[in-house]
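User: Teach me something about this protein's shape.
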Amino acid sequence: MIEELNLQCPYKVTSNSDLFTYSFTTDYKVEYSVAFIDSTHMFTNTSTGEHLSGIYTINIDKMNDIAARGDSKVRETIESIVEHFFNDRERALIYICDYIDGKHYHRKRKFNGWFKGNYSCKDYIKHDAEFNSEEGLHLASIIYHVEHPFISNIENSYYEVVESLNKP
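Assistant: First, the predicted structure itself:
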């Protein structure tokens, strides 16, 4: 079901609850999609995975060919969407920096700056990790609320997944 959300952000945001996606269009007609993809399956073969649910990866995509500009309203809107996501304190969010164009360190710095600037350390926990695959180095983070009921399970399982993905 598609609905317009009343978020405290500069752009009007619509949500597709069936697909767990959000979308918005900037003043410059650039269209963005923010998708939360259930990734709990990545944790099922870990030592504590059977206790986990609500673990998502986030994808932020520009949906048209219009050139993006330095629009601070985009950042504010995405921040509001992520805050909306964390209304459910039993969710966790995985962010993997895309390495395909060699800008994964830039993405990590941007993500870390967003996290430090908007989320109090007393409310959220963030763990960073790196792992190598045949494709190259991956930079990943997981974030969850300090009141998540399965904190130790998330932490243990996250590092088990990272270790299993690491290829020398």
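Now, about its shape. The longest strand covers residues 124-133. The chain has one domain: 2-165. If you'd like, I can walk through any region in more detail.
User: That's plenty for now, thanks!
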